[in-house]
Amino acid sequence: MEFKGMEEEAALPVSPMGYYFNSSVMSVSILCVLEIEVAIDDSPAFSLLHDVFLPISPRFSSIIVADEKGVKKWKKFEVNLKDHVKVPIFPSGKSPQFYEKCLQDYLSKISMEELPQSQPLWQLHIIKYATNNAAGTLIFKLHHALGDGFSLMGALLSCLQRADDPSKPLTFPSVKTRPILDNNNNNMHSRFSNVLRFFSSMFNTASDFYCSIVKSSLIEDDQTPIRSGNDVVRWGPRSTATMAFPLHQIKQIKANLGATINDVVAGIIFLGIRLYMQEVSKESSNLNSTAMVLLNTRMFRSFSSVKEMVKPDAKSPWGNHFAFLHVPIPKFTDSGFSDPLEFIKKSQQIIKSKRSSLGVYLTAKLLEAVDKFRGSEAAAKYVHGTLKNSSMGISNMIGPMEQVSVANQPVKGLYFLVPGLPLSLFVTVVSYMEKLRVAIGVEDGFIDSQKLKSCMENAYDMIIKATTSATTT
Questions:
Q1: pLDDT of 335-356, one tens digit each?
Q2: What distance in Å separates the CA atoms of residue 251 and residue 468, rounded to the nearest whole number?
């Protein structure tokens, strides 16, 4: 099928992961929500999109088409910006609480809507009403086929500047690399430790690879207050809630436990989820539940400029470069209420063993084999099955340390959502201005987003109190 504006130049193929997320079983997008500090002036929107956003990647001005063999490719397309910019109209003269509800309903609405395949796969929604958290809201809706969160966050940041001084570059929290094993042959203890690590890694790899296969095709998580098992959940209405935690307190917990920030955040989320499950149904708090954690597989995890990301030999390349990590959610029988910090320690232990495994890479190779011998649609169904049989998903991103602005309008806060997945619960985390913003997107009518938010905040308070007690004793 031809579309007006196509160029006859060679079309780039859609990446395998891009195909899986834009298939008959899934259509996954990312909603990047920017809370603006002042009343929105939308007059620069079209020039910003034309001059800054579109040149970032050719995919932003391309559509996906299938050739005569059914292979999907990116094809250049003439972009009409008016088709991509949406400015909804709500009743005038209402309170911020009223417009907050309008915003939540609007997020649910656009989460359910698939992006039209007949035009480039992105939209900008401009909400010009003051809510509880902002004077106005910008929502970028970007299809996951365009790239993963790392790529799309880099693209978004290319449209922003530092609010204090636009001439200065944005800075990000440092990301420590993993320690390199000591290969000193004269150090017997080091050699023995390396041998143990090797066999431990091999065991974890075999176990994780086996569990991944079984999880994708045979065994699914128990049905609980966070997992309905409803296959049409990806198209249903979503309810959203967000919360913010001070980053310096997260770092304090991290230092006291010798953990990572990801371990602490996972512990808070998992404890909050188990508290919610127990509050809804006491029996469910000890049922089997698995989180699918999106793991960035790039060699370097700090953001590069978009110019660097699109180079053929880029160390942090553009596209979809991530894998799913199966993480069992700890049960109360494992840690109990006596010490909430044990929940973080248990999460740390699980995640550490998973990270020492090559299971995610073997699973990626298996997916390539399925794609090659059975076709991309079969591989997409394999990914869908893996997600559907799990209870929740988690994705985290690092954001700028300084306040940013878009077209000289300061951004008060930001968060992102990932609709379109066959999961009743998806949690996202992003750092910004020394805070961690946690957003939960849930199956509306099945999970009470406000109650779950309250349970996560309660989990955070419990862990902070336990950390303070441990420090003073």
A1: 455 678 888 888 888 877 766 6
A2: 13
